[in-house]
Amino acid sequence: MTLYFALAIVVLVGFVLICRSITTFIHEFGHGLAALLVTDGPVSIYIGSMGDPSTSRKYQIGRLLIFHRFSFWHSRGGLCVPGYTNSLVGQFFYVLMGPIASLLLALGIAVLTLALGGHDIVIIFAFIFLSSSMYDLWVNLKPYPYSIKLADGSITFNDGQLLLLIIASRKFSPGLRKGFYLYHRQKYGEALALMEQAYAAGERQPELLSHLISLYVQTCNGEKGLALYRSEKNYFEAVPEYKFNLGIFYGMTANYDKAMTTFNSILYGQADNAMVRVNRGFTLNLMGRYQEAITDFDRALVLTGQDSYAYSNRAYAYAQLGDLPAGKADLDLALKLDPNNSYCHLTKGIIHLKEGDRQKACTSFQRAKELDPYTFSLDRYMAEACSPD
User: Fold this and answer.
1) What is the per-residue pLDDT across 309-338, written as a single tens digit (0 to 9) for each?
2) Staple 39 to which of 71, 85, 192, 378, CB 3.0 to 4.6 Å?
């Protein structure tokens, strides 16, 4: 009796795992097929990963790209990256069709099984699949306001939150909606152009202002960031978090004293703010005060336990102080945490320059450029290492 019970439990658990896998598969295909109908451009489906093609098998059917990473339960979930449409109805349709597709299939199987009088095992399987699909519907359509970071560093949200964002975007112009889409796809240059057009046309929504500030940080455009901050100071000064961006813009524009004053004022009330310490350390690096910068990075790493940018910036400070082994050790740690951190490759190039190897330095700088063309001070170093003698 005990053996039969154990076998029943094993079979039941197996059914649950299989049904969860099938649910994920159908969910993402529901998104993908709907997106093919209403969007332009390629549509990518990731099964078993959150947008990481490097660990997946690739299949292509016309505009549909499928990346599959084997995982019995697909514990890392799935992802659909649609093409673009400015139709809010179209966007709503392809987002909703993910959880709806798996539920419709499960309902169809359950009805057929009961109508045709299937075997008990088939009925149990159909019930588990239906339960899995209903759970999937609930989990995905319940709005979750926190962003989900994908393998390439871009962000998305769960289906429920995306639907809320689509509804809220009715107040935006078509160009601005596309700008938000490009921003989340990390196409910062294109997104910035569209958002600046919207701003010039008179749009002043808080979402636009916050995205513009973020884009000026991402593209290292301190002058435009300061100009926007001053133009809309009534909005930005009312939100204390934006003071942090003001310090970044001061540092980018070589207003180092103002940058330090800004960061110090934040740390006076938030001494354990690791992000502020990393950026104050970055500013100290720009000022040539490398030992003080290292102190900030040390503290940030104590607070976070691990931070790729704290390590890469500390590596830069060590390199400038001539401690190349310490710099290389920090770079290794930074790259393990984030292989796409362009500042790691910038600092690696600087170390190669200090070692007298311009060719390797140029290669590192080019890699940094591929990862992030807006990496601060990168063009200056590339001109030094990559220009012909």
Assistant:
1) 999 999 999 999 999 999 999 999 999 998
2) 85
CA distance 269 to 282: 20
Total number of domains in the chain: 3
SS3 category, 367: helix
Is this structure's pTM higher than 0.90? Answer: no
Locate tokens 């152009």: which residue?
193
Is the distance from CB of 278 to CB of 296 less than 8 angstroms? yes
Q: Say if 234 falls within a structural domain.
A: yes
Rg of the chain (C-alpha set): 25
Shared-domain flag, residues 105 and 20? yes
Q: What DSSP assignment string belongs to 299-357? A: HHHHHHS--HHHHHHHHHHHHHTT-HHHHHHHHHHHHHH-TT-HHHHHHHHHHHHHTT-
Task: Let me know whether 42 and 156 are in one domain.
Answer: yes
Residues 147 and 22 in one domain: yes
CATH number for position 196: 1.25.40
CB of 162 closer than 8 Å to CB of 99: no
Where are any strands of DSSP class E within 189-313?
none
238-258: average pLDDT: 93
Task: With residue 135 as reference, give the H or E element that holds it.
Answer: helix 120-141
What's the pLDDT score for residue 57? 85
6 found inside a domain = no
Interacting residues of 265 by C-beta distance below 8 A, sequence separation 6+: 243
Residues 244 and 277 in one domain: no
